[in-house]
Amino acid sequence: MAGKAKKEEKQGTSILRILGVVLFIVVGAVLIFWHANFVTGRSLLLAFPGWEVTYKGCWPNPFGGAWVSDVTLMPYEEYPDEVFHFDSLYVDVPFMQFYSTFFPKKLKWLRSEIKDISLEFSGGRGTLAEPFTWEMAAFGNVSASPFEADGCMEDAIWVSEEMAEMGLQAGETELVMSWHREEGSLVREQSIHTEGVGRVDFRGEQARDDDFDLFDMVEGDFSTVRSREWHVRDEGFIAARNAHCAKKDGITPQQFVQRHLDTVERLLEADGIAPSESVRNAYRHYAERGAPLDLALNFSALPDNLSYEEFELSDWLNFTSGTFNIDGRDLNLGMREVTPRPLPETDDEEATTFALLESERATMRAQAAVAEALAAPAPTLAVATLPASTPPPTELPFVVPAEPEVAADAITDYAKLRAEIGKRFKFYLKEQSPIRGQIVGSEDGQIRVRRQMTSGFMEQFIARANFIRAEPMR
């Protein structure tokens, strides 16, 4: 009897052990799935701050990271048609960093911060005009080409479905974004590749002397830029774009290339930058036949009496050195600072950069005609003498144009603009015409604005020193 009782006790103990093991596995699996979703969510927030990003499935990689399905990017709710969809995403985080971040920060002996993240998106397609990142602002999300539609009369960007209309056998778009934290520095790498269309790779290094988790960067990024470089490889887009735009606008491909060059140069002038003749001629090789293009920039530290918030884009030229390499030919940076000349204002938010340039040229021609007419010798007229009894004509007073009325809800505090991401304003700036645009973020202490009247990728900074006020657009 005693032996039988011991046998039953062992069976009961065995079942409890099995149940305990099963419960441990289930709870562990749930926690790992939860942690994979947490890391994925924070990684997407790091990559696309302020954007709405959704996905349908997330499965943890036992060796660190996660597999994610059906990822959709939508920058702002007010533009629901501007989206980009990826079939899959792989979040790659080193094994120890992935699992150690599961523990709370209080347990420092168990926890280590995430310092390496890679996001690999694949199967991409969409109609998104907003650039994926600030570093890729000059490049098309699908074409991976700089200033992709500039020179076209009606087109501001190119989307996935339009590649076939150009005659390209385009694959789906792949996007890679990675961050690598080293002592004293942060390295960012990005890549856009659409097979049969084009590819661009970016690498940037910034000084970061603070001890931070990569996920903490969503709170703000005020770091010192050390270097940035872009490598562009055309896979057929340039020739297809030139022929397509030329046919639509009723001109030759060679005429379109000249339009493209003129428009790009005018865009740079709006930011106070002018290229040298050698750089202009070298870029023509890329614009004509898609020659390989590389740009590497190195930045020196700012003097103590200057800050990022006071800088315009052209101001960086004094602290920048670098090289262009186009079709295997090395050139110096070859940019000089000029007086910024903003593009003309328009109420047509769909106007392309080239359309604005043509409007500006028409205005200049009209002004030249008026000046020529005024300079012509006036015909001799007979002068009648008024009788002495006739009173002299009354001199009309000079009327000083009234200052535009300031809206009651105008923002005059520059710092408050950071809380208005996604909203559209009319910005009043010192010594230049007002501009309309949407606040899309901040970089190194400056507000970044997307100009709706130009190409979809055209963005610019508004410096604190030039800011007067911002009035919400109705």
Structure write-up:
The chain is of the alpha+beta class. It contains seven helices and 19 strands. The chain has helices at residues 2-47, 95-100, 162-165, 237-249, 253-270, 277-289, 353-375, and strands spanning 52-54, 57-60, 66-74, 84-92, 116-126, 173-182, 184-194, 198-208, 224-234, 273-275, 293-299, 320-326, 329-332, 335-337, 424-429, 435-443, 446-450, 459-462, 467-472. The strands form three sheets. Strands 1, 2, 3, 4, 5, 6, 7, 8, 9, 11, 12 and 13 form a twelve-stranded antiparallel β-sheet that branches. A hairpin with a 3-residue loop joins strand 7 (184-194) and strand 8. The termini are far apart.
Overall morphology: globular
Largest sheet: 12 strands, antiparallel
Structural class: alpha+beta
If you compute it from the alpha carbons, what radius of gyration comes out, rounded to the nearest whole angstrom?
Answer: 29 Å
User: End-to-end span in angstroms?
Assistant: 89 Å
Helical amount: 25-40%
Question: SSE string, helix = H, strand = E?
Answer: HEEEEHEHEEEEHHEHEEEEHEEEEE
Low-confidence stretches: 218-223, 388-402, 452-457
Short description:
This protein is an alpha+beta fold and 474 residues long.
Write the layout of secondary structure elements.
Elements lengths: L1 H46 L4 E3 L2 E4 L5 E9 L9 E9 L2 H6 L15 E11 L35 H4 L7 E10 L1 E11 L3 E11 L15 E11 L2 H13 L3 H18 L2 E3 L1 H13 L3 E7 L20 E7 L2 E4 L2 E3 L15 H23 L48 E6 L5 E9 L2 E5 L8 E4 L4 E6 L2
Antiparallel strand pairs: 1-3, 2-3, 3-4, 4-5, 5-6, 6-7, 7-8, 8-9, 9-11, 10-14, 11-12, 12-13, 15-16, 15-19, 16-17, 17-18
